[in-house]
Amino acid sequence: MAEYLEGYATKFELKKFVHFGCEVNRLSVLLPSTPDNCDRKTAASAVFVEDDRGVFVEEEEEEEEEEEEEVEKKNEIDDDDDDVDSWPRMVLEWTDRSGNDEISHRRIFDGVCVCNGHYSSPSIPRISGLDNFVGDVLHSIEYDDPAEYLNSTVLCIGGRASGMDIAREIGRMPDRTKRVYLSDSTCRAWEEFGNENNVMRAPRTLMIDDDGRTVHFANESNDIDDAGSCTVDDVDVIILCSGYDYSFPFVTDESNLELSSIPGERRVMPLYMQLWHARYPSLSFIGLPHSVVPFPLFEFQSDAVVSQWLRRTAGGRRGGGARSIVPLPPTSERMASAERDARSGGPVVAGSPSAGRVTDTHYLGSHQWDYCRRLSRMCGKYDDGTEDYISTNEALYERSKVEREGMVPGEKDTYRETRFRRLDEERSYDILYTEMK
Ligand SMILES: Cc1cc2nc3c(=O)[nH]c(=O)nc-3n(C[C@H](O)[C@H](O)[C@H](O)COP(=O)(O)OP(=O)(O)OC[C@H]3O[C@@H](n4cnc5c(N)ncnc54)[C@H](O)[C@@H]3O)c2cc1C
């Protein structure tokens, strides 16, 4: 993965645009029609701009005036858009720790793409008694080396990608005699995994007794002990493989963005097409959908964001290519669509049935292909080549999915070793290597 990302950054000469060592602390909306706008150049909140040397300096008064003129000009250009104010500029505040001194910056941007990932803020399940558990409790984000658990009985709570991987890795350690429990709410019965050393599938973890030791599971009929009670009391370490929350610590109430991302919900709203802030599309979020092929999908999203910017700039709008870019619908329509997505759970793309849990709001799965097609059409770029690219991704995904179905501990996990060579033009792929090393 690291190699791929390095290669991508090198090919497209991206590193020169990245300000390493900088952390965004605050993102807020600058509404041209609100009085907050006038206030932004107080001593405590000076605006910084980059000078010819690439150094950030406090913005001069006349530049401020120029800026206001620019807003007016921009609004004139946008006169034929029905909702000029819905494309407000954004204020970004960040700290640069790349040098010896810590330097604070504040700057106004025409648009902001939030790409802060969603695998860094652990989602902690509510399990009664967890705080009193006598052993160690950690989240999968802290897991590193299976050797640390050689002599421990481990309970992994959550049986999807992280839980499966961790249970398998710990269970496979040579000379290991202790058990690994892999608990998941979709599991109805206790079950040993065929070939896997001591990995036992368990139903949903319910609670931990006051003794801090006895763990209760949802299933009433288990084979663990003769009494048939659904408990175990030999767990030394609990690893919470319960996923991650969307988190935007730099968005606060003062940001005035009306953005919601409540821990545990795994839902960000209001979003239009899982991408644009439905009210303020000058703010976009790349990479929120999950259960997708991430990087190709991110590229379609990025293209869509850029194309809307192109369309809105005077040159772009009058230039040839931008004519075919489909504008976003008006605010009311975007908000209604965002509301539907957020309330129905699960993907709502191009005529697909909307059903699912709130936590599946950003789940795309098999809907991702139509989602990519739709984004590409909005950019005015959808053609046979794009279709070949999407279809090939789909073919690879489906092929990989078949292999991943046997991914549970105890089954072969050959998909990791499979290598593909793309033959995009032919809507096909070659399997060059499928054997496990
Ligand atoms: C265990 C695991 C295994 C995975 N394996 C694969 C795989 O094999 N193949 C695959 O395609 N995908 C895989 N994924 C998914 C993949 O890692 C993500 O989809 C991808 O990293 C998302 O990229 P991103 O740029 O959106 O976010 P990230 O890679 O998370 O990058 C976000 C960046 O934003 C920075 N950032 C965050 N907050 C701030 C802030 N306030 N100011 C400034 N910078 C900030 C972070 O430092 C980070 O550099 C895996 C994920 C996990 C957790």
UniProtKB/TrEMBL annotation:
Pfam families: FMO-like. InterPro entries: FAD/NAD-bd_sf, Flavin_mOase-like, FMO-like. SUPFAM superfamilies: FAD/NAD(P)-binding domain. This is Flavin-containing monooxygenase. Transmembrane segments: none annotated. GO terms for molecular function: oxidoreductase activity. Residues 57-70 have a biased composition (Acidic residues). The keyword Acetylation does not apply. Belongs to the FMO family. Keywords: FAD, Flavoprotein, Oxidoreductase. Residues 57-85, 318-355 are annotated as: Disordered. The keyword Oxidoreductase applies. Coiled coil: none annotated.
